[in-house]
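Bumping with the actual sequence this time:
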Amino acid sequence: MKRHFGYRIVGQPDLYESLVWAVLGQQINLQFAYTLKGRFVQAYGTEVKFKERPYYLFPNAASIVNVKPDELLGLQFSNQKARYVIEISKAFVDGVISQDKLARLSLEEAKEQLIQIKGIGNWTANYALMKTFRYADAFPLEDAGLKNAVKQCLGLDRAPTWKEIEKVFEKYKGWEAYATLYLWRML
């Protein structure tokens, strides 16, 4: 931890982008997740040029809501990721999810609202709330990388149990997101 002293949560100011990024990055390696995100942004984002070089803004929910799942499959999304990204987009467009409304809620209330949406589970909700609202106590407990880091910390030759993971986090109560970031840096 001393080596990374001062490490902070890198925020993502847009909740929609945080949620979509969380879905894209689930259960695949980070390199492929970045590839998917790049394809998605180039296909549906707005192009802006700077010194004749193209850059792309992350698409908004309204630009994705009518996309057919097959189009996303063409970008190498899984069926599930394609459906979830479209469902999340619909939830934003229909006002079911509102960043402004969630900003006024507690972590638990915001999480409850988010997990009502198909494709958003506890891991995705915690990750997005940690990144967008910088809740210091939001952390994706179910994260595979987090499990591996706890395994290393505890010197285990097996995956840690949920109880063992929760015990590690007890001493960081209220700062679980930061503990998660430090543990991820170990990997």
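The tokens above came from a reply further down the thread. The radius of gyration is 18 Å.
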